[in-house]
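Minutes, structural biology subgroup

Action item carried over from last meeting: produce the structure token record for DUF3231 family protein (Oxobacter pfennigii). EB confirmed the sequence was re-checked against the source entry. Recorded below for completeness.
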Amino acid sequence: MDGSLKIPLIVSEISGLYNTYMNDSAAICMLKYFLKYTDDEETRTILYDALSLSERHLEDIKLFLEQDGLAIPDGFGEDDVNESAPRLFTEPFYLFYLGTLAGFGMDGYSLITRYTARPDVMDFFIKCLHEASELLKKVTMFRLSKGLYLKAPRVEVSNKITYIEKDSFLSGIFGKPRPLLAREATNVFAGSLFDLIWRGISTGFGQVAKSKEVRDFMFKGRDITSAHFEEFSRILNDEDIPVPSISDSFITSSTVPPFSDKLMMFQALSICAMAVGVDGAAIASSMRLDLLTTHSKFGAEIIKYSALGTDIMIKNGWLEQPPQIIRHDQLSTV
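Output recorded by EB:
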């Protein structure tokens, strides 16, 4: 293991460590604030466990980068969170947020692990993957016990093996489409569930943002995700499949910002990346053309919206540049 520390980090490892550092430093700000307004002891324990994981990740990543002579990202810190601000989100939101964080964290860790070569770095990301899966399980079991977990619908499916014989199986744009495949229904459910969480975050951030430009951006995100949710709901209703819903709005009436506009914009763009991933996975596993069209359209809309957010970040000097490849022909001063 000691010998592995002498092997320089490769580009995929640098990228993975940088992204993890940025995401965990942002999560630490969110979690510290959540802990200020947590009444339920079990919720507090889960939030504290998640906070401890993120803090340990930062220390491990700093060591990796320092040993390789690389800069430590600025990330986010005390200037980006106001822990004395009034409560903005309700406690159920904390659990939905943590579940989303853990689930997409698992996706990211499993991806980067495939492109990791150094044993110690691979061990780190495998540990992160295990921690994220354990956190997701813990949050899920607790939400189930509290009646807060939104399960995918229970539906009847065909009970015999058949083979597709007609090209019409792929259609869905003209005439009455065939029934959804189980995986297609899962994709639509996942998209609608993610939209509920995204809408809550966008509404909350828009309500407290200091900059009008940031407020407008957040409420535009709320409107986009509301439109997507309506379309997903229509698809599920057409199949007589229950649409996911929550009885909690997630948001209080506070207008005092607990987070900097910089942090909220970073979180909004991170959510956009997750949303594109949700639609991308749906495109890869859907066979009905109308579903492919819908998920492709939604993904394109989110990418366009994300570009607007990136422009806001750049204009305000908030976008920290990720590690960039050096062009050696531009290093010469001759």
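Discussion: The chain has two domains: 8-146, 167-315.
Next step: EB to file the record with the rest of the batch.
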